[in-house]
Amino acid sequence: MLHLEKVSKQYGGSRKEQVVKAVDDVTFTLQENEIFALIGESGSGKSTLAELIVGLQQPTSGSIKWANVQKNAPVSRLQIVFQNPDRSMNPYWPVKDIVTEPLRLSGLPRKQAYARAESLLGKVKLPAEFLERYPFECSGGQKQRIAVARALSMSPQLLVADEITSALDPSTEHELQQLLLSLKQSEGMTILYITHRLETIAGFADRVAVMKDGVIQEIGDTRSLLDEPKTAYTRALLRAGVFG
Ligand SMILES: Nc1ncnc2c1ncn2[C@@H]1O[C@H](COP(=O)(O)OP(=O)(O)OP(=O)(O)O)[C@@H](O)[C@H]1O
């Protein structure tokens, strides 16, 4: 569906700065209707890769292309949800304005946008009473559901979830993962799920790529990668149980 070919991103490189190869020669293809987990410890280049995929940054070299599409994808095909919902939500807006913001930005009149708000919340299993709430009246997990609902308003083919469960407690994280799993089926979308916690993806992600220092170390279906890791790095991560 979306193919990355030898994608690299360097930062710095002016006289005094050292060059940082945040993403180094990354090639893989995201398939239709899969959850693809990108795992890496802090600084491995995961967020940079996510930003390249959604077009917030341009690669230094390489290409990112939709299969069978010549020009760049329209923004609505891709939506990204970040780790910290407070940074992407206006604290003075009620939830009905937050979830419908992309619809209104794309030109839908407010009344028609509001008419879709309740069903968007329904998709993330939040009751309609949340429409009139403000972000400070919602828990962290509920705010992430609201952020997912806002992304769903654009019917994305690809949802990039950048550490969206990392700040949540384990049971809330599990609930949000279950929600993503059901949305993959009901919405027929692909989810790029970025995390530093390898131990959270069993039974959730279809495939996984392990990234270190900007380089993909290993890629494969989740069960085989967890059962028979091919690289010493992945084995060490599994032995450690968590990233350091
Ligand atoms: N704008 C920037 N300018 C210079 N270096 C950067 C910039 N953004 C990221 N880097 C560097 O690129 C590397 C990868 O960073 P990135 O944020 O992509 O990693 P990450 O895996 O998402 O880490 P984390 O999980 O801590 O967010 C790091 O060495 C980081 O210091």
TrEMBL record:
Superkingdom in the source lineage: Bacteria
Keyword terms, alphabetized: ATP-binding, Nucleotide-binding, Transport
Database matches in CDD domains: ABC_NikE_OppD_transporters
InterPro entries linked to this entry: AAA+_ATPase (IPR003593), ABC_transp_ATP-bind (IPR050319), ABC_transporter-like_ATP-bd (IPR003439), ABC_transporter-like_CS (IPR017871), P-loop_NTPase (IPR027417)
SMART domains registered for this protein in UniProt: AAA (SM00382)
A Pfam family it matches: ABC_tran
ABC transporter domain residues: 2-238
Coiled-coil annotated residue ranges, if any: none
MF annotations from Gene Ontology: ATP binding
UniProt cross-references to Gene3D superfamilies, sorted A to Z: P-loop containing nucleotide triphosphate hydrolases
Protein family according to the UniProt entry: Belongs to the ABC transporter superfamily.
The protein's name: ATP-binding cassette domain-containing protein
Organism, as annotated: Paenibacillus anseongense
